[in-house]
Amino acid sequence: MPRQPDPELEKRVLDAAQKLWRGGGDKTLSMRALAKAARTNTPAIYRRFKDRKDILRALLLRVRTKQLEAIQSARSLEEAIDRYIDFALRNPWEYELYYLQEHEQLRPAVSRSPEIGPGFAWLQNQLAERLGGSPEDHASLALALWGLAHGTVMLLISKVVPPARAAELRAGCRKALEELLRAAEQRGR
């Protein structure tokens, strides 16, 4: 009788890949280590995933989905930025994976459109709802807000800003966000 495909294999492989990535990044994510951690064998993994790059792509999509869920449930842009930072600090390895490899793994090389991604599109839409106009009208402000949040995250993850000053940095990020939004609202009147 032929063996039945394991319906939980993909989840086990991605859970194991995420755990291995957290343990040391790229150097810890070999196919052999992944098969062992997922309690399977490498041929089973290759039947589901074309190659290691395919596993990274699936892992990136999982991280992006969880990050989007975190910010989209916010009641305000200010809360969304707080959630963005909280997500990154709770998941530093995944955050770095996403921002170091996303452009290579999730965007086709042929298409270099100005579209950045679903989180950026969501941010533009939120700005359009709050400030009026179309989402594209707010591309520059969205980039500035994203840069502010991402810079804050990277300073905190890298510990360039000592943990004792983390709250101060986050408060400064929040204040800058509020000032940028206030200036944009005043320009719109």
Provide the low-confidence segments as ranges: 109-113
Instruction: Give the DSSP E fraction (strand runs of 2 or more residues).
Output: under 5%
Q: What oligomeric state do the depicted chains represent?
A: single chain
Rg (C-alpha, Å)? 20 Å
What fraction, in percent, of the residue positions are helical? over 70%
Average pLDDT score = 88
Shape, principal axes of CA atoms: elongated
According to DSSP, the number of beta strands is 0
Most strands sheet: none
- State the end-to-end distance: 72 Å
Find the structural class using helix and strand composition: mainly alpha
The H/E string reads HHHHHHHHH
Total helical segments: 9
Task: List the SSEs and their pairings.
Blueprint: H1 9-22, H2 31-37, H3 42-48, H4 52-72, H5 77-90, H6 92-105, H7 118-131, H8 139-158, H9 166-188
Written account of the structure:
By secondary structure, this protein is an all-alpha fold. It has a domain at 75-188. The chain is built from 9 helices and no strands. It has helices spanning 9-22, 31-37, 42-48, 52-72, 77-90, 92-105, 118-131, 139-158, 166-188. Helix 4 (52-72) packs across helix 6 (92-105), helix 5 crosses helix 6 (92-105) and helix 8 (139-158) runs antiparallel to helix 9 (166-188).
